[in-house]
Structures are given as structure tokens and as C-alpha cells.
């Protein structure tokens, strides 16, 4: 893939417009019997991964949420060790780490679709911690580890070749491969001791290696690339606009090398964490003085939207702190504080998309006779859910026709 195409795509795709705000319900994800959880990623099938507390709140394990149920992914090591799931692909493969409490080391773990585990840290011969950040549809894993003496550097692993130090940081003393798309293009950051981190991009060269380039703004600035989409949109954050706080950005080929996404009111800092193929970006904003709580956001229509605007008096959350993953349906996951003060994972389905007017009954996302029965009930009671056509406020055959048209079309 041509790096000029990669970087040039960013500006166009990020400023898509014409999408109505939707996806209003904020769903609390269950724990593993304890009091607390964090969601880190979601795939296109709606499978969510993260970490959740076990009963007693002394241990936290990697967790898979599917159809509202939480599955304990276990740990690699002693029963009192910890684990976390970082990313999941559409094949159901999961990467994360198991933390050895006795040493504090974190070992990269791969869960297959059947949830069997492999310790990639041990297989790669990593010294100390090995932390994965992403997995693509080919099952390639990227992250950071010390596979040779010195600082941790970016690694890439696949089943055929194992793990090797490659990608965004071979020219630097240390760093990480933070994200990878399905063409194997890597993004991340590298550093020299004493200097700020620099955002990097590495493209497969067709000979088993990578062509590397710095994509961070020029000068003595700080920048990190977090993720890259298949369309080539590279997101992250930089302090190029200020010597102190940093803001979420899209890295571009055009000068000055980035498009700042800004931040939320009263919060000086922001970070972009994930991006989907529609150019929807998610992340978090936080106070430079740490006096105000962090806030989760999603960027679309050329605007950073505070996801806390979706909360109402009925919500179990008091504040949504960070948005960490977004899939191709604009389903967003992250974490926040509940009204009881617990940290908990959340799911927002279809953010920025119009709701399907024919999808009125469980199982949502599937149109069947239960939706027809629900419409007839709401129509008979003159409910607003059945008021689908002009003249609005009047329930007649035009509303029935509108429902049947949406039902027949499958609510695209």
C-alpha cells in the first residue's frame, strides 16, 4: 500500500457529513461477579472484550461479552494472577495479557476463537513484559516487547513466522506498534532517551520487511499514532499546538502533518484511540490539572461529540470517562463511573445512525413477526413509535405503509 495514499485519505474520510445523531442508549456491561469492568474493543459481530472484576473484587480477569453475557477468559499462570483482553478481530481471535502478580510482568496472550490460550510472550522469548495492542483479520498481532536486550520495541507476530522486532521503531531506542490494519500497515511511536515520542508508520515492503517513516509533526514535539483503518486514516494525538497539553488528531501528508480534532470544553487534553472505516473516531478528553473527570467522545460530522450528552436520569452511569473501540456499525465501547462509584464498561449501539423504525422488539437487529406484533400494539395505542408518516400526530394507513416499507427493506 502506498504511504501517500494512506496519509492522504485521512482528511477526506474524517470529515464525512450528513449523518444524524442516533444510538442513544448507554448499556452497562456486566462484571464477572465483582464490582467493576472496562471494555476495550468490539468487533463487527458485536463481541466485546475487556477486563472485569471477579467476586470479592480482589482479582480481575480478561472478559468476553457476547449477547449481554460475560465469559471469563481466565489467566495464564497462577490462580491469583490477573489478565486483560485488549483487542478482538472478526474471527473471534483475542489478544491481551496475563499479569504475573509475583513479578509484575505482563505476558502477551492470544485466545483462539474457541477461547484456548497461547502465551506469545513466552513463545517470542520476551524479556520482562510483552504487551499486545492490536490484531488484524489475518491473525497478525502487534505490540511492544523486549525481544533483545534494551528497551521494549514494537513487535509483530504471526503463526508462520513467530515474533520479531519490526515495524515502526527499528530506528529508535524504544517504542511500540500500537495499531495495524488488514494490509499489515503498522502505526505507533518511537523514542530516543530524553526526547519526546514521535508518531511512526511502517508499510510492508513486499520483501518481509517494512518501509518506515515519521508522520509526527516536525520539531521538538510529542506525537503518538494509535490506530489505522483499512482506508488509511491514522489517528492519535500530538502537542504540536501547545508545549504542554496534547490533542487528538488525524495524521496527514499535508503540512503541518496533522489535523487537530480539538478537545471538549474545560478539558485541555484529548486522545484519539480508535477509528472505523466510515471515519468515526473515538477517544477521551481530560483535564490538565486532573480536577475534572475525563469524558468520552466520538468525532463525526466534523465535530467532537461528548458521549455524556446521551446520559439521562434513567442511566446507571454518572459519567462516561473514555471511548476505546468502535466497529463498522458505529457501536462504541468504553468505560465510565456508575452512580454507585464503580468503574464499568459500556456499549452504545449505532451512534450517529438513524434507528430502524421497524425494529421494535427483541431480538434487536433482527426483523421478524415480533416486530410486526409490536407495531400493531403501538399503532393500536397511538404510541409515538408508530407515528411514522405525515400527517404526524394522526395514526392512519400511511403509518402502516411506512412500517411495511421499512420492514420489507430490512432497515438498511
Brief sketch in words of this structure:
This protein has 4 helices and 28 strands. About 10% of the residues lie in helices and about 40% in strands. Residues about 1-20 have low confidence and may be disordered.
Essential attributes:
single chain, Methylamine Dehydrogenase, Chain H, disordered N terminus, 412 residues, mainly beta
Description:
It is a single chain. With 412 residues, this protein is mostly beta strands. 10% of the residues lie in helices and 41% in strands. The chain contains four helices and 28 strands. The strands form seven sheets. It has a four-stranded antiparallel beta sheet with strand order 1-28-27-26, with no helix packed on it. The chain is globular.
Write the layout of secondary structure elements.
Blueprint: H1 3-14, E1 26-28, E2 33-42, E3 48-54, E4 60-66, E5 69-72, E6 82-88, E7 94-99, E8 106-111, E9 117-119, H2 120-124, E10 127-135, E11 141-146, E12 153-158, E13 162-165, E14 174-180, E15 186-191, E16 198-204, E17 210-214, E18 223-228, E19 234-238, E20 247-251, E21 258-262, E22 269-275, E23 281-286, E24 295-300, E25 303-306, E26 317-326, E27 332-338, E28 343-348, H3 369-380, H4 397-409
Antiparallel strand pairs: 1-28, 2-3, 3-4, 4-5, 6-7, 7-8, 8-9, 10-11, 11-12, 12-13, 14-15, 15-16, 16-17, 18-19, 19-20, 20-21, 22-23, 23-24, 24-25, 26-27, 27-28
Amino acid at each position: 500500500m502506498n504511504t501517500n495514499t494512506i496519509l492522504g485519505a485521512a482528511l477526506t474520510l474524517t470529515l464525512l457529513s450528513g449523518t444524524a445523531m442516533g444510538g442513544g442508549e448507554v448499556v452497562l456491561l456486566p462484571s464477572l461477579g465483582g464490582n467493576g469492568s472496562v471494555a476495550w474493543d468490539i468487533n463487527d459481530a458485536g463481541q466485546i472484550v475487556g477486563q472485569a472484576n471477579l467476586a470479592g473484587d480482589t482479582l480481575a480477569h480478561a472478559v468476553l461479552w457476547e449477547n449481554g453475557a460475560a465469559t471469563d477468559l481466565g489467566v495464564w499462570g497462577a490462580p491469583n494472577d490477573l489478565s486483560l483482553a485488549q483487542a478482538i478481530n472478526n474471527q473471534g481471535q483475542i489478544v491481551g495479557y496475563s499479569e504475573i502478580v509475583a513479578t509484575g510482568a505482563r505476558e502477551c496472550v492470544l485466545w483462539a476463537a474457541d477461547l484456548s490460550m497461547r502465551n506469545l510472550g513466552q513463545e517470542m522469548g520476551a524479556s520482562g513484559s510483552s504487551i499486545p495492542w492490536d490484531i488484524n483479520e489475518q491473525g497478525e498481532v502487534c505490540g511492544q516487547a523486549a525481544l533483545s536486550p534494551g528497551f521494549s520495541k514494537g513487535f509483530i507476530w504471526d503463526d508462520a513466522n513467530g515474533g520479531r522486532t519490526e515495524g515502526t521503531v527499528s530506528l529508535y531506542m524504544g517504542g511500540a506498534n500500537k495499531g495495524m490494519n488488514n494490509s499489515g500497515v503498522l502505526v505507533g511511536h518511537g523514542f530516543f532517551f530524553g526526547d519526546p515520542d514521535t508518531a511512526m508508520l511502517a508499510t510492508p515492503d513486499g520483501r518481509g520487511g517494512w518501509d518506515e517513516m515519521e508522520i509526527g509533526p516536525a520539531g521538538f514535539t510529542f506525537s503518538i499514532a494509535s490506530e489505522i483503518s483499512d482506508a488509511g486514516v491514522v489517528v492519535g494525538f500530538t502537542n504540536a499546538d501547545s508545549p504542554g497539553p496534547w490533542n487528538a488528531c488525524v495524521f496527514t501528508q499535508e503540512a503541518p502533518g496533522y489535523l487537530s480534532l480539538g478537545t471538549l470544553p474545560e478539558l485541555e487534553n484529548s486522545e484519539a484511540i480508535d477509528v472505523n472505516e466510515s471515519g468515526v473516531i473515538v477517544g477521551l478528553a481530560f483535564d490538565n490539572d486532573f480536577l475534572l473527570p475525563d469524558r468520552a467522545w466520538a468525532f463525526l460530522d466534523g465535530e467532537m461529540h461528548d458521549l455524556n450528552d446521551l446520559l439521562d436520569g434513567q442511566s446507571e452511569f454518572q459519567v462516561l470517562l473514555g471511548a476505546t473501540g468502535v466497529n463498522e456499525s458505529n457501536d462504541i465501547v468504553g468505560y465510565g463511573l456508575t452512580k454507585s462509584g464503580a468503574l464499568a464498561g459500556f456499549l452504545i449501539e449505532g451512534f450517529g445512525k438513524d434507528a430502524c423504525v421497524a425494529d421494535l422488539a427483541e431480538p434487536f437487529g433482527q426483523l421478524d413477526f415480533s416486530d410486526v406484533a409490536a407495531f400493531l400494539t403501538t399503532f393500536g395505542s397511538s404510541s409515538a413509535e408508530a407515528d411514522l408518516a405525515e400527517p404526524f400526530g394522526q395514526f392512519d394507513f400511511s403509518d402502516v405503509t411506512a412500517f411495511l416499507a421499512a420492514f420489507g427493506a430490512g432497515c438498511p
